[in-house]
Known about the structure:
alpha/beta, Rossmann fold, seven-stranded parallel beta sheet, three-stranded mixed beta sheet, 11 helices, globular
Amino acid sequence: xxxxxxxxxxxxxxxxxxxxxxxxxxxxxxxxxxxxxxxxxxxxxxxxxxxxxxxxxxxxxxxxxxxxxxxxxxxxxxxxxxxxxxxxxxxxxxxxxxxxxxxxxxxxxxxxxxxxxxxxxxxxxxxxxxxxxxxxxxxxxxxxxxxxxxxxxxxxxxxxxxxxxxxxxxxxxxxxxxxxxxxxxxxxxxxxxxxxxxxxxxxxxxxxxxxxxxxxxxxxxxxxxxxxxxxxxxxxxxxxxxxxxxxxxxxxxxxxxxxxxxxxxxxxxxxxxxxxxxxxxxxxxxxxxxxxxxxxxxxxxxxxxxxxxxxxxxxxxxxxxxxxxxxxxxx
Length: 331
């Protein structure tokens, strides 16, 4: 196949590209990325001879149409994703997540190209901490943040283009990813790199908020399964059934790194902070016979700690600026 991967220099996209080169050596890959602060050429350095990397904006209709016309499948990762940034300035999220997805949809419609749209479980809002339910494909959308509302809008555009224009597309909504190449503004790498740089880790509020964690390689293997075998027009929820509250995750990281599990600071909670996410991945498990390989969360965390410990040259230049931004917001 000839694949176009939008946002392929970001966290999840980078890992997808690495796995594609490793596991699908006969496919050709073009990566389109705007190389904002969250994208990194260095992340793709190990595979730069195996891909074509195009720096450009996903809202550039002429460029996107040209690249889509040269491929068989578009895997659409490109998005602004960080909730704190969306609260500070929602405009880039509207432009990238909504207009960018519209631009991709019009291009795949024009050229008759297959699309897989990567989204988030945050479009469903949140669940109470004591609620036994989990998100399913039929859960009503109820986004609660500028970020999740723009991803919900993008999902709705994909669904509308499937129905109105018969675009050949699938959607996946995934739980929280962790693993290599994740920007240090995100929860797990921020705590790890705080310890590595002698800073005290930070925890929003009481840390009772629950996230459903999945290793990025498992997420991407599920995306591949959907591309190969998914039913067009369907939405699939990707999760590894690994719910953990933020306090427990932070204490586990601290213990693994030889620190007192209470050696952190509480900071004011994020505005509108969702309480709990929980994915029911049974459709993906049953219909597509997919299951995660990284089923031991603690082992996954240890491997992630080791990656950041061994790759300070990748994250080190980013760290100070990120922490300055958090300090300015009192976080």
